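Predict the 3D structure for this chain.
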Amino acid sequence: MTSKNKSREPAPPQNSRPGHGRRKAVAAGAIIAVLSLAAAACGSSSGSGSSTPAAGSSSGSGKLSGNLSISAQVFGAPILAPVLKAFEAANPGVHVEESVASSAAGTAYQTSLLTQKLANNLPDIVNPQDVLSPTLSTDGITQSLSKYLAKGEPYPQSYWLQNILASYIPTIGPGKGQVYALPNEADAVVVFYNKNEFKKAGVPYPTDKWTWSQMIADAAKLKVVKGGTQTQWGLCDTPDWQALYNPLMKAFGVTSLSETQADLASPGSLKAWQMLVAPTQNGDAVPYATYLSASAQCGTLFDSGQAAMFFGVRGNLPTVRPATAGKFDWDVVPMPFVQGVHGATRPTGAGSISWAMSSQAKDTTNTIAFFKFLFSAEGQDIAEKGYGVVPAIPSLLTADSVWQKLPGPPDNVGAFTTAAQTGTIAPQTPNTVYNLTQTDIPKAIEGVVDNHESYAQAFGTINTAINAAYPKS
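Done. Predicted structure below.
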């Protein structure tokens, strides 16, 4: 997943998934789906360029019975709903009941699950996202799936994109190396651009080989000032989003945040902050205060034509497409190259929402069987049709996959594949540290923008505070 809580905490309606779209912490219902399973499982996969067995085949008998309970966060429920519907239709004896519990995304969701855990009433399946997963596993809410994956249930661990799956594999602690959740998508950052505004300004469309300096130069040409007031910016660049600053710092040889320390004020870090913040001060990018305003998120500014470019994810499409229909033409392009410590690299952030087996799962056979359907070519096809999902599964990133054949815009769908395959996941940090970054990083940016502090001063102060929040060993 600030005052707007921007993170990969993959957000519908704007920059929903992370992954890493960013997710705003908004109050919403966590949907609980209870499935009474008593029918033969579905038999064949769809034509997505992959042949995968359908739900139930891992159980051996081909028959399922009993109950399965699923809890989804607000941003997970709409993705899951059509898959549940198809699963029920393919299995006529399966009855799906849904009830809405009062909850919210992110930390509030964690709290509701902790309450259920204390009552020994966790559902079989829960819905982490990349930045929340380490906390849920540490809290004992989710259990390791590694013993199932080792047996190919629901599929082998190699079935998923390893860079995206890494969000759910702790690198320290008792669960080190274990897989605690399975990613539903590879939600990696690309650049959305308004083709009409590029054409009007006489600026060539960006290409898959463009550079960061070219992007900023284009942004300067795309700004519009009328009557002394700027009415259009070239870029909305979300400088406090970890899916931007984390991979940009990585390009300069810096691990911005880890399980044990923060490095947000080293020379490489300061270079990244300046690249993100400076354009918001000179009119090339949307001012930080405007970006923070509740009514003017980057997707909204792009939809209205006020920002010619913004950093977004596939999860933005279900809102961007209807909001821009009939107004202007647009497309996407991969993140631009920067010259880093190891040469030219794309600073591409990535994230996902996921599904995990709870530590109190009562029917593990049905849980694994549903995962098998959900992550099959058929299950992923269903999710893809809503435009918001790029599968985190290499075999489903082929040109004949459903999501690659949907009518545009966008037309350059290969940008999402490039992003998914190269994306850098959110850092795994203790929850207290993660929460502090959401408030302190915006304070540091505001210190530079509003209080004219130096980058070293502003980010040095918050780096010290964040490091102090790490648990002492």
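The longest strand covers residues 27-37.
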